[in-house]
Design goal:
- The protein is α+β, with helices and mostly antiparallel strands.
- The protein has one domain: SH3 type barrels, CATH 2.30.30.100.
- It is 17% helix and 48% strand.
- The chain has a 4-stranded antiparallel beta sheet, with no helix packed on it.
Length: 84
């Protein structure tokens, strides 16, 4: 296992951190109250990602509801997902 000091020396740019996450389970927060979690298979310089064993979570909050009103959560499980 690598220590924080050796990992810090391996990370020079933000994409280096993403490179360390290849073949690891990651969590991606998207716009529109959407979240993805899955295994990072590939990515590019624009952070387009290819994820495997993906679980998508969509939270729906009604616009006219009070602050403490319940909200709806939708789960979707996918084997393979390409996020662009």
């Amino acid at each position: 296992m690598e220590t924080a000091s050796t990992m810090g020396s391996m990370i020079d740019e933000p994409l280096d951190l993403v490179k360390l996450c290849l073949d690891e389970k990651i969590y991606v927060k998207l716009r529109g109250n959407r979240e993805l979690s899955g295994r990072l298979h590939a990515y590019d310089q624009h952070l387009n990602m290819v994820l495997e064993d993906v679980e998508e979570k969509i939270t729906i909050i009604p616009d006219n509801s009070p602050q403490d009103a319940p909200f709806q959560v939708i789960y979707n499980s996918l084997d393979f997902y390409i996020y662009t």
